[in-house]
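Hey L., structure's done. Input below.
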Amino acid sequence: MGIGFSAQTFQLLEGIRDNNNREWFHANKAEIKEHCQDPFAFLLVCATQELSDHSVRLSGGKQTMFRLNRDVRFAKNKDPYNYHVSGTLTRSGLKNEQGGLVYLRLDPSGGRLGAGYFGLTAKRMGPIRDRILEDPDRFKTLVEDLAKHDLEFGTESSLTNMPRGFTDKADHELAWALRMKNFMVTRPMKRNDWKGDGVVETVVDFVKATTAVLEFGLVSVDKPKV
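Output:
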């Protein structure tokens, strides 16, 4: 059984984007499930199987996918549906994972893969910053290893100034890392990257290349200081 992403997959995602209303969505709901959601769930299952003996056990499937329906109660954008299919691979096998995870997003332009820790509060980001300072050589090795795979930490949403408690480190060689609000690495995906069974290998290779990111935060984020 193949993954099943095709030109029709992207046509449907474009359709949701361009016809974001209940009538169009329900008229195409069965096809969206067949060509977008079901193969995405199967991809997560296949990746789980391929990673079954990996050092950081990650798993996912239908239960770790996010809904297409949007909660618009407090949103400025009142479109009722997301036009991307997304989900995660987590150590708990649940999508409400509070620790490190791998994120997959399929959208009309292609999408992206991500790995690490996202949406951390300052309190939960603090231990990662502490660890960067306590073990700078390990962190620098991590950055160098990521670069070998053409990957790097995302710094787009970094703080302009040093975070509270780290203001005396403004001149530190790793100050840029201390200013990060998230501890995430991403990889853009083109449409063709999703087509064929090779997408499983692409996801698995990405997980293996970013495992050190997850491991770096295991102690510091998943077991935060009291």
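The beta strands are 85-90, 101-107, 110-117, 183-189. The longest strand covers residues 110-117.

-- N.
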